[in-house]
TrEMBL record:
It holds the Pfam family PMT. It comes from Marinobacter aromaticivorans. GO terms for molecular function: glycosyltransferase activity. This is ArnT family glycosyltransferase. It comes from the Bacteria.
Length: 499
């Protein structure tokens, strides 16, 4: 084993381990992570592995269950913690890093494979999603496995690659749905249009009939069972999430959050964020080379090289698909990044630029260093985050039998729901007034907005006093309920959101 390989491997391991360690110290911040974490927790709590539940009695139709299955399995193995729920995404990212390395080695050489895997692992979205409770890492793993397998089979490889093409589709369909077929099919179709003569005879190498049957057998039963158990799932998920969400900028059908209305074409800006810092550096270098007169034959060379044209098609497919979409997130870029990294990795490894040779080591460390510092600041309290972990923990330490559950006046944050084990409540002002007058609990613990003044707190109840606060809320305790019958209906700033 060469010294060069050892250095590369040590750097890659250091990058992946830094994210691995950070997963355990950063709390779930609202809204995405605790929302999905709570769904996985409920899966373990209820033992229901068919229907993911948004909350008891409310099915979650927004995503298929693969990521929740993986997170729930991790809870069963490691216990419930930030680390256990994030661990499956880290493993999915590890799988993509290996696929990037494998395809680069097939296309070029070990040196390019090393840089490609480093570039991919240190892109902003890759590094963040590797330690986050989201579904995107599983979708990207599925599409990457399908596309890498497809090219390797077209290049003459056989064996398990013929079947992993369909396994990737299974992973994508069970993690994000039909979108996986689109993001896998678009680059394949585009590439076949460019390389039909070379690829047409190789298409027979894939076991299309048996592979499609395997895919249907592994995927369809869950979709059928989900519809039978909670009718309406297929209409919401297939039509709403995959058609209306992207064609209607003002779509308001999201049952579990809010639509992310963005200007059309915003997905290309998201690509710059997601691929940071490598995408910006590569784009600037490409523009400079173009204006220096090095553009002659660039397009023809790209089209004539089957490997490069396949990477370009695979890298561009997500942006092309979402260009006209009205509702987009930057995480939609993740399926593009493995192939973007392969193109940039070749350029970085072979570029003769003196400045790039000096800068590339710093570029590798930039995102891991920035995020590690941020996690450290958050873990020590220097950098506040939107999480209710500390407030919930404080309530759990001081509350006694006979006290109320933790109550949020208005919206119930997802992180409060998760960290309380589903016991925290969100009530309206009227609901809190009812709790006071019925005198069910000895003490009420109520979280109200941090911006509330002393007069507003006093208007809630004469015995109300603040015992702690965080970035968004102040925790009040209301004692002596039998002597305190004040109405909260006149309290200012109350938001109605009966949970």
């Amino acid at each position: 084993m060469s010294k060069r390989f050892n250095v590369w491997l040590l750097i890659l391991v250091a990058v992946l381990v830094s994210r691995f360690i950070g997963m355990a110290f950063f709390p779930f911040a609202d809204t995405t992570e605790p929302r999905y974490a709570e769904i996985a927790r409920l899966m373990v709590d209820t033992g229901d592995w068919i229907t993911p539940w948004f909350e008891p009695g409310v099915p979650f139709w927004g995503k298929p269950p693969l990521s929740f299955w993986a997170q729930a399995a991790a809870i069963n193995v490691f216990g419930i913690s930030e680390f256990s729920l994030r661990f499956p995404s880290w493993l999915a990212t590890l799988g993509m890093v290996w696929l990037v390395w494998r395809l680069a080695r097939q296309l070029w050489n070990v040196g390019v494979a090393q840089w490609s895997s480093l570039v991919f692992a240190t892109m902003a979205l890759t590094y963040i999603s590797a330690g986050a409770v989201m579904t995107d890492a599983f979708l990207a793993l599925g599409t990457t496995l399908t596309l890498v397998s497809f090219y390797l089979v077209m290049a003459g490889k056989g064996g398990l690659w013929r079947w992993s093409f369909f396994l990737g589709l299974v992973i994508g369909l069970l993690s994000k749905g039909p979108l996986a077929l689109v993001l896998s099919g678009m680059p394949i179709v585009l590439w076949l249009l460019l390389s039909w003569q070379e690829a047409a005879s190789n298409l027979r190498r894939l076991p299309w009939w048996r592979g499609s049957l395997m895919t249907a057998v592994l995927v369809c039963p869950w979709y059928i069972l989900a519809e039978l158990k909670t009718p309406g799932f297929l209409d919401y998920f297939i039509v709403g999430e995959h058609i209306r969400r992207f064609l209607d900028p003002g779509w308001t059908g999201d049952l579990y959050g809010s639509a992310h209305n963005q200007p059309k074409g915003m997905i290309w800006v998201f690509w710059l964020w997601a691929s940071f810092p490598w995408g910006i550096v590569a784009l600037v270098s490409l523009i400079l080379a173009w204006f220096r007169g090095k553009r002659n034959g660039f397009v023809s060379r790209t089209i004539s090289n089957p490997g490069v044209s396949f990477l370009v098609a695979s890298a561009l497919a997500p942006m092309l698909f979402f260009t006209l979409a009205g509702n987009t997130l930057w995480t939609y870029i993740l399926p593009s990044l493995p192939f973007t990294a392969l193109l940039i990795g070749r350029w970085v490894s072979e570029c003769q630029s003196f400045w790039l040779a000096r800068l590339r080591g710093g570029l590798v460390a930039l995102v891991p260093a920035l995020l590690t510092v941020f996690v450290g600041l958050a873990a020590t309290g220097w950098q506040p985050v939107k999480t209710e972990k500390e407030l919930v923990s404080y309530y759990q330490q001081i509350s006694n039998a006979g006290d109320s559950p933790l109550i949020y006046l208005g919206d119930l944050p997802f992180s409060a729901r998760f960290y309380s084990g589903g016991t925290a409540l969100g009530v309206t002002g009227e609901g809190l007034s009812d709790l006071q007058t019925t005198n069910v609990f000895q003490r009420l613990y109520v979280a109200v907005p941090r911006t509330w003044s002393g007069e507003e707190v006093a208007g809630l109840a004469s015995s109300a006093r603040k015992i702690m606060e965080n970035r968004r809320y102040q925790l009040l305790v209301i004692e002596g309920l039998s002597r305190d019958q004040q109405s909260v209906s006149g309290a200012n700033g109350v938001r109605s959101n009966d949970i």
